[in-house]
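Researcher: Quick one. two chains, 680 residues in total.
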Amino acid sequence: MSDYREMWKNLGMNLELHDQLCQVLPEAFGDVYLTQDNRPESMDYYNFVVSEIHGVRPAELIEHQKKGGKVFGTFCVYVPDEIVFAADAIATGLCGGSQFWVSGGEKVLPANTCPLIKASVGARLDRTCPFFRIADMYVGETTCDGKKKAWEILSEDVPMHIMDIPQMKRPKDIDAWADEIKIFMDKVEEFTGNKITPEKLSAAIKLINDKRRALERLYAFRKYENLPISGKDVLVISQIAFYDDPARFTLMTNKLCDELEKRVKNNISVFPAGTKRIMLTGTPLAVPNWKLHHIVETSGAAVVVEEMCTGTRYFENLVDETKDTIEGQINALADRYMKINCACFTPNDGRIKDILRLAKEYDVDGIIDVNLKFCGLYDTEGYKVEKAVKEAGIPVLGIETDYTDQDAEQLRTRIGAFVEMLGNKQYI
Amino acid sequence: MYCVGIDIGSTAAKVIVMPEDCQDVLYHLLMPTGWSSKETAFSIKKWLNERNITFDNSHITATGYGRVSVPYANKVVTEITCHGRGAYYLNKKNCTVIDIGGQDTKIISVEKGMVTNFIMNDKCSAGTGRFLEIMANTLGVSLTEIFDLAEKGNEVVISSMCTVFAESEVISLIGNGSPKEDIAWGVVNSIVNKVCTLSAKLSPGDDSFFLTGGFCDSTYMCEQLSKKLKMNVESSHMARYAGAIGAALSTK
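Model:
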């Protein structure tokens, strides 16, 4: 990483502690990513973004603030970035995916809180992540009890706006969500001092839809028998999508897709023929959590799709671009966001339909249902997911894990046996 | 050509040598894994060489948690696949395998020797061989003795799932003057319960159960499991070698 120490110091970061993180991250990325053979050349952009993860993008955000712009930090794919960008502000994802931040979170949170929440709170309170320092306002939501209470703790340290996500999907709940988006819009207008016009919101809707289209295009390459890109590479791209400049991200991802198109024409695959195709479903994999993809893809299988917030939940379904009044646009946003099937809703049969549909679209051989430790919602829903998937004749393996590496070998045994089992299936 | 299966578990290492047609077992070896799987693998190599089994006249598959420490293996297969295959070899019918290992407990559905589904304990030693080993230590008895004691014992509930907490529970039972037999009963029962909970999650069909791992000789364990599962749990004296047998069968 280039020298950003002055910037980090000005952000009030704990430099000594942060240095420890800067030491381990490049090594982890090198071991997991740079050891792969035959990666697309256009991955260089994403390699660069990760290598400068706490430098280049934070510097851009600070530049934006110097010009009077605001930065909003978000934690959930339900928070509509469109509203933020329509007010000439920038939204950036803040979810923590490293064990490094967990102990900081445990200082104030119960140990049996999910690692994503612990890491996010730890990153803020320990002052070891520039994104958490830069954001002028955090936007929380009510997806789970752990988050709701964590916001109360964070709000002692940083301005927070909380969006109330409904727990059901009846028409009145969709109306309530539209109302929440309106309240959020008022808040963003007030906080930035910028008026959101239909023209501006329309442009922002197009901006974020374009990002979704680029991701959709990228994911479509994973439907081919010959996989032109690894699951690991797509995962890091999905993670970068949360905090990169949206227009540039779309441009670079489409550029990568152009290269992948050529690979498909030339039948280039980054996996040997017959590699088993795995779908991951469940809780999100926030950057730099690459553990499961790494184990799967070094155990004779490939991850071809993630039914996760860092996956299809992030980009599937577009916002209707034809509306030209604020009211119409807000309803269009509410409709699109309420199509995301998160385990915080009841009932949540839409998610099971999604999983079965994705299994067909991506021609998966088996599903690994992933649960971040102490996520009661996804853990409980796992029962219904696994049951439905088994009924559809797709082998499934349930896994519960966190950000530590201590269970890596046990996971390797389980995942290895699962892949061996998929290989046997044809003989029975 | 010989087919050699090496299963390096957390507690014991098992080796099986079969002829090329895999119809019978020529040699078998059981030894403690000790502190270094690498050294164990080296001792096994010596043992094989003494029987004129070398790289040139054998296919070697390694399994178990120490499988990566066998540098001379031609192939590495997970213990789940191997236990399934080995149990089918011994039991000769479709079944649900209960493997109580040193540090993990696995329930494996097997059809025609192939694993069709499996489940393993999460990260914790409840319901494993290590759990029983620690409790036997606390009671000052051997692993065989604990089964003999349990057979004479009456119902006592040890409710902690965590091995450390269960140990303190056992210590307070000792302090309260509970008979050793009853405590032994409670300890074995705790493992049986844990195994049955795991097995219920896998929801196996009406096939029979087959116990593999170090407790295969304990008729008491089989009886207790049968009682709780309400299904016949069988085993065999060779069932501790199931992983190694499966590995030998996997060489092809």
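Chain A has 19 helices and eight strands.
Researcher: Thanks, that's what I needed.
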